[in-house]
TrEMBL record:
InterPro entries: FAD/NAD-bd_sf, FAD/NAD-binding_dom, NDH-2. Signal peptide: none annotated. Coiled coil: none annotated. It holds the Pfam family Pyr_redox_2. Belongs to the NADH dehydrogenase family. Keywords: FAD, Flavoprotein, NAD, Oxidoreductase. The keyword Phosphoprotein does not apply. Residues 4-314 form the FAD/NAD(P)-binding domain. This is NAD(P)/FAD-dependent oxidoreductase. Gene3D superfamilies: 3.50.50.100.
């Protein structure tokens, strides 16, 4: 009787989990193991690039890769997971509710932006968290040329000074110049609750972000708390108001809500705690990977972050280990000791660091080349040829 491995999600973690599981099954000549990906669409949406323009192009089709590696695909949106019956209920492409059975399950459904309970935040802010919302934002930006040239029209407020907020803010001056022309004065304002620019980062990395922000004339409002957002802009706790027709929310991220369907411990971002093999603690036969997994990445206390850098490797290990559990083979404990940061800083360049202490290795044009190599090549799916894909899906192969 065939064994069913069901993977929920086709993002970085889900895609690599599927290819990695198919690799191990192929290596052991097991055609009785069926690997299926269940997701809304068979495509990888290159989310780390959604701060860029032309976001519709940042999608990579996955069916050729799945066909080449023997992975099945079901188009659908998961609604309910029954771990007792080993059934996943989902809404199919026609809108009907159907189910898929499994012997092993991998949850790889990613994360979503988390908006704070601020009056007006839902109605009057944009985000670049998902492809659809990034397209809405891009369309809005393009429409600004049809509005009267007021300070509000020419000002973009970015709420949150984390990784996404910094990359978007530093990209915007060039996008606004292209939109309005070089003679129009524009402003980009980052509203940040922290006391310093880039407070989550090393002192060396913060210094580079500050340098780029100054060169790009980006205004930072530090120690700032947003109390309301409306069609006229943003009101801060100190009573000041920033007039803007464009407010983008980038503060906060939460694991996909499907993590709530498991009777298991979750962290403050909703991620499920997993063991070293990426099985959800206390839930036999179910694995979590990517942004839904709280996983130790090394033996000194570091935890995988909600980034594609970690999701790619988490997916490879999860896929290998879920297949290993079916094949009665020893799993490979997840470890990802190396960690790098490569932050795009718009027309100023970029900054590249290595290690958890974020030692700056290169900046400006040199770092920009590294950033482009990572986001335009390295994180994309492998070529749709079985041997090439299986080689890349080896969890012990070097990634970064």
């Amino acid at each position: 009787m065939k064994k069913q491995i069901l993977i929920l999600g086709s993002g970085f973690a889900g895609m690599w989990a599927a290819i990695s599981a198919a690799r191990l099954a192929h290596m052991n000549d097991r055609d009785d193991i069926v690997i299926t990906v269940l997701a809304p669409q068979p495509e990888l949406r290159v989310r780390p690039r959604f701060y860029e323009n032309h976001v519709a192009s940042l999608v990579s089709p996955l069916m050729p890769l799945f066909t080449a590696t023997g992975v099945n695909f079901i188009a659908g949106s998961v609604e309910r997971i029954d771990t007792n019956e080993k059934i996943v209920w989902y809404k199919d492409a026609q809108g009907g509710t159907v189910f898929a059975s499994y012997d092993r399950l991998v949850l790889a459904t990613g994360s979503n932006a988390k908006r704070a309970p601020v009056p007006g935040v839902e109605k009057h802010t944009f985000d670049i968290d998902q492809l659809e919302s990034a397209q809405v934002f891009e369309k809005h930006l393009s429409s600004l040329v049809n509005q009267a040239p007021t300070p509000a029209r020419n000002t973009v407020v970015v709420c949150g000074g984390g990784f996404t907020g910094i990359e978007l803010a530093t990209e915007l001056p060039a996008r606004l110049r292209e939109l309005f022309g070089p003679g129009i004065q524009t402003k980009v304002v980052v509203v940040e609750r922290g006391a310093v620019i880039g407070g989550r980062y090393s002192e060396a990395l913060r210094g580079v972000i500050e340098q780029a922000s100054e060169a790009l004339d980006i205004e930072w409002r530090l120690n700032a708390e947003i109390t309301a957002i409306d069609e006229n802009g943003v009101t801060l706790k100190d009573g000041s108001h920033i007039a803007s027709s464009t407010v983008v929310w980038t503060a906060g991220v939460q694991a996909n809500a499907l993590t709530e369907q498991f009777v298991a411990e979750r962290d403050n971002q909703g991620r499920l705690y997993v063991d070293e093999n990426l099985q959800i603690r206390g839930v036999p036969g179910v694995y979590a990977t990517g942004d839904v997994a709280n996983a130790a990445s090394d033996d000194v206390g570091n935890t995988a972050l909600m980034t594609c850098q970690h999701a790619i490797q988490l997916g490879k290990f999860a896929g290998n280990n879920v297949a290993a559990s079916v094949l009665d083979l020893p799993p490979i404990p997840y470890r990802q000791v190396n960690y790098v940061t490569c932050l795009d800083l718009g027309s100023w360049g970029a900054v590249y660091t290595e290690g958890w202490d974020q030692k700056v290795q290169s900046v400006r044009e040199e770092a920009k080349k590294i950033k482009i190599a990572i986001t335009n090549e390295l994180i994309y799916p492998p070529k749709a040829e079985r041997e090439i894909a299986f080689s890349a899906a080896d969890p012990l192969a070097k990634f970064v």
